[in-house]
Amino acid sequence: MNINPNIISQSYAISKEDRQAKNKHRSFVIWLTGLSGSGKSTLANALDQYFFNNGLSSYVLDGDNIRQGLNKNLGFSPADRKENIRRVGEVSKLFVSAGLISIAAFISPYLEDRVEVREMFSEKEFIEVFVNCPLELCEKRDPKGLYRKARNGQLQQFTGISSPYEESIEPEIEIRTDQLSVEEGVSKIISFLKGQVLI
Ligand SMILES: Nc1ncnc2c1ncn2[C@@H]1O[C@H](COP(=O)(O)OS(=O)(=O)O)[C@@H](OP(=O)(O)O)[C@H]1O
Ligand SMILES: Nc1ncnc2c1ncn2[C@@H]1O[C@H](COP(=O)(O)OP(=O)(O)O)[C@@H](O)[C@H]1O
Predict the structure, then answer these.
(1) Residue 127 CA to its chain's centroid (Å)
(2) For the domain 16-134+165-195, what is the CATH superfamily, name and number?
């Protein structure tokens, strides 16, 4: 999209680096992608608790919540999902500029949409976590009863049933929630972040 020539960037007196120095940690995005019921929200909250308890500033952006406010005009068509992910990418960018850790938990089923979000950030600022769990187990968990509705034909365009999920090819981290406990999943993510000297 062309940038309007009448809109001129304004610089801020306090930089991202100033804010990171004040917070005593780097700012970045942890992007959790996976099927409904794979464990994104559970991992996002457990990570947020870890950060909170260890003096790091983070905040969770969760699809179910963002879709009740900022993105309440969006549904589940491919175009609406793309716009949903784009907006969350932009919000995460603001968080990173504000010196915070953004924990985004969205199905984000399309590879192309995730690549577009990744491109908004520098290499170390975007950590994609593929929350991998077989569809059969997600459906068995069915924490919100949505798979049952999708199978009954009461819910259209449901990811994994009547709408695609394109698996991550080279995520920074993959968490098999059918094999690891929540605590083990969190430890794997924390170890990665420490290894990259991000926290
Ligand atoms: N048709 C359909 N397909 C998938 N999910 C549906 C649908 N309808 C409602 N829900 C509920 O919306 C949550 C997914 O929202 P997201 O913003 O993460 O979706 S997406 O990234 O735009 O694909 C999803 O949350 P999670 O179960 O946490 O993934 C569901 O609770
Ligand atoms: N290892 C695990 N990691 C994450 N969630 C798990 C795990 N094992 C079981 N669960 C359960 O699976 C369900 C996942 O639901 P949720 O976190 O809402 O998934 P999503 O946000 O991807 O839809 C929860 O009831 C959670 O307790």
Answers:
(1) 9
(2) P-loop containing nucleotide triphosphate hydrolases (3.40.50.300)
